[in-house]
Structures are given as C-alpha cells and as structure tokens.
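Below is how a single chain appears once it has passed through the pipeline. First comes the sequence as given, then the structure the pipeline wrote out for it. We keep one example in the README because the format questions we get most often are answered faster by looking than by reading.
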Amino acid sequence: MENENLAIQSCQRGDLQAFGILYDSYVLKIYNFIYYRTHHKETAEDLTSVTFTKALSNINSFNFDAGTFSAWLHRIARNTVIDHYRTFKSTTDILDGFDLAGHANVERDVDTAMKLEKVQDYLSQLPSQQRDIVIMRVWDNLSYREIGAILGKSEASCKVSFSRIMHKLQQERINV
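Resulting structure:
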C-alpha cells in the first residue's frame, strides 16, 4: 500500500514511469474483472489496455480521500466495459469456434457449461447493479467496501443486497 501511494503521488507529479508499479499490481485483477464480463480473451485484453490508458491519463483526478486506488481503477474498468457494450456489434469470429482444447474432458466441460448457463440465466434476470454485486463479490473477490466504492453505495447496502440475492438463489434451488 505504501509503494502504491508513492507511485500514485509520483505519477501525479509527472513521473509517469511510476505507473508501471500500479500496472503490475493490478493488471491481472482488472483483466479478470473485464474477462468475467466479456467472456472473450481478446476483448478483455483490449479493454484492459483501454482501462489503464484512461487511468494514466486521469491519474491527477485520483483523490486519496475519496477512496482506494483499487476502487477507482475498477470503476474505470466497469465504465469501459459499459461503453464497450454500448457500441458493441454482435459478431462472432469464426476462429473462436475452433478454440477447443486437444485433451478436453468433454463430459466435465459440458456439465460445467450447463451449470454456468444456469448461473448466467439467473444473473441475467437480476437488475444490473445486483448482478454487478454478485459478480464482483464471487468472481472478482472484491470486498464489500470495494464494491460499494465502485458502485457508489455503502458497504452495508452491498452486503444486504448480496445476502438477499444468495438467499433468493437458495430458495429457488439453483444448484451449481
């Protein structure tokens, strides 16, 4: 955390080389955050790059008193994904269909795909903010405090929302 704060302060003073420390610390987290929302490797890579470019361009707008750098960066990533889907045209690259593992366990993969489809169907029925809370908590492994900072909600509100969603999921017996 100390190195992170020093790197941010250095960037804000014009030493953009220090951004490499921040990039190295967060690139995998941000990539995974974006990948879970796009389910496409190349798109996630592109949007991760866009996110870090925006972060670097706007590093002077980061305010230590307003929240953590992690939450600030995740908010940029979230908005980048939203912007992507606003302009996204639904096309599928034919080569994606041939991206099959050579030694795949087909039975296990089909079972996993069916379970994921159930979860995606359930999540698609939720309002976008509730869906974001579940994804950030389960897949991105973010704390309620970080989720709240990203969404502009309180930590307690995020906890309650997550708990209610999980309770409803259990009542509907979505088995995954």
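The radius of gyration is 18 Å.

See the next section for the split statistics.
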